[in-house]
Design goal:
By secondary structure, the protein is of the alpha/beta class. Helices cover 33% and strands 19% of the residues. The strands form two sheets. The chain has a four-stranded parallel sheet. A four-stranded mixed sheet has the order 5-6-8-7, covered by helices on one side. It is globular, with a radius of gyration of 19 Å.
């Protein structure tokens, strides 16, 4: 999947998800073994982190990851850029494109912003969160954590409880887990469960043939048959 955008897990194939997880696991071991964490995998590449929302963990993680892999990394925060003076997203993207960058990591409050960015930049676009739509890299990290602590994801039963409607991380987790064959249960008030995911406690088939459901209050998380 070299050169592919990462915009969301909904449209990412199970094979590509597994490839990312396998590569991440190997890179984690490699970086952990070396005293000098600098690798040459991305030497000569330029990455720009463009964040239109505040971030601590995601932005610093992407910055460190890029530097560990040998890339040159630039951070652009909306609050300290021309965006604060009224520059549009389109103009910001065109400016970044003119720099000749190889990848752009972007967080934005608008759903679909990462997809929009692909219209104006030739570089790889990685979605670091777009509104309440998705946060695919956090979803991938959660999948890697589950796999490292509990083994193969296929066949696992996973409950996600809370305000799923407004959580981009929860949405990415649902799609990623389903793609890898897990059984996902959603728990929370019906007003906080996305309509497209489940309809009042009914069962909906997942893309991989698995199912997810909304559990009613007080109901145990049982197999979705």
């Amino acid at each position: 999947m070299r050169g592919q955008h990462i915009l969301g897990l909904e449209h990412m194939s199970p094979l590509d998800i597994e490839r990312v997880l396998d590569t991440a696991a190997e890179m984690k071991k490699l970086v952990g073994r070396q005293k000098n964490k600098k690798l040459s995998v991305l030497r000569g590449k330029a990455i720009v982190n463009v964040f239109f929302e505040n971030s601590t963990r995601t932005r610093s993680s992407f910055e460190l990851a890029g530097k560990y892999l040998g890339a040159d990394v630039i951070n652009i925060a909306a609050s300290t850029s021309s965006v604060a003076k009224g520059e549009s997203l389109r103009d910001t993207l065109l400016t970044v494109q003119a720099m000749g960058i190889d990848a752009i990591v972007m967080r934005h409050s608008a759903e679909g912003a990462a997809q929009y960015a692909t219209r104006y930049v030739d570089a790889v676009v990685i979605n670091a969160g777009d509104g309440a739509h998705e946060h695919p890299t956090q979803g991938l990290l959660d999948l890697l954590t589950i796999r490292q602590h509990h083994g193969k994801i296929a066949g696992k039963k996973v409950a996600i409880i809370g305000d799923i409607l407004h959580s981009r991380v929860a949405r990415s987790n649902v799609w990623g887990l389903l793609k890898l064959g897990a059984e996902v249960h959603l728990g929370g008030p019906k007003t906080m469960i996305p309509k497209e995911m489940v309809d009042m406690g009914g069962h909906h088939p997942s893309p991989g043939g698995r199912r997810y459901r909304r559990c009613r209050r007080g109901e145990r998380f049982t197999h979705s048959a």
